[in-house]
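Hi, here's the filled form for the chain we discussed.

Project: internal
Contact: R.S.
Residues: 226
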Amino acid sequence: MSYVAPEITLDAFHCPFCGTYAHMDWSWLSNNRKGQNIDYLEADCSRCRKSSLWLAKEKRNIQGYIKPTSGEMIFPDFGSAPLPEGDMPEDVIKDYQEAASIFSKSPRGAAALLRLGLQKLCKHLGEEGKNINEDIRNLASKNILPPLVVKVADTVRIAGNNAVHPGEMSDEDFDHVASKMFDLLNFIVKKGISEPKELEALYTMTPEGPRKSAETRDAKSKSDSA
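And the returned structure, exactly as it came back:
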């Protein structure tokens, strides 16, 4: 199913801890120290039982019950971005998680960090990591990534450049583009790293005889076409 970002008082969303779409049990936590009336909420994941902490910014009385109408997740500090794919390289995860932590406050900064993460990811996939535009096109020409990713990456590259050198994109544009960049990085990891690894594991599970025959035919085919 599609990713459902954490949002205050939603009955269910993708947990920021375990990444599972799960029901959330909400409870109020209030802080009235020194005359301050600050309201916090706790959301318990029904799957992993870990709790996220939320600050209620606005609230109103609905049929005798006080309910928050807006707020933000303050722990964990991942923002509303999906969790990084399990096979994402460590140096890319670092940029990804930093971008997630500042996304709600600075989509422009998040876009710049994700562009940096994309450059590093291209290097892990065998490219130079200097020009995202060229790297993505090379990966598509090698059938490592589907061709449509080229069009998406063009938008990412523009967003990244504008994130460092402010251009004509509005804050709303950055908010939309940066949110899609999280999905793009995860998609590229899935297609370029996870799926090949899964296929390799399946291949090694096949009987040795047929596997060697297939390798011999493949080598002969390459030799004949050379």
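Let me know if anything looks off before we file it.
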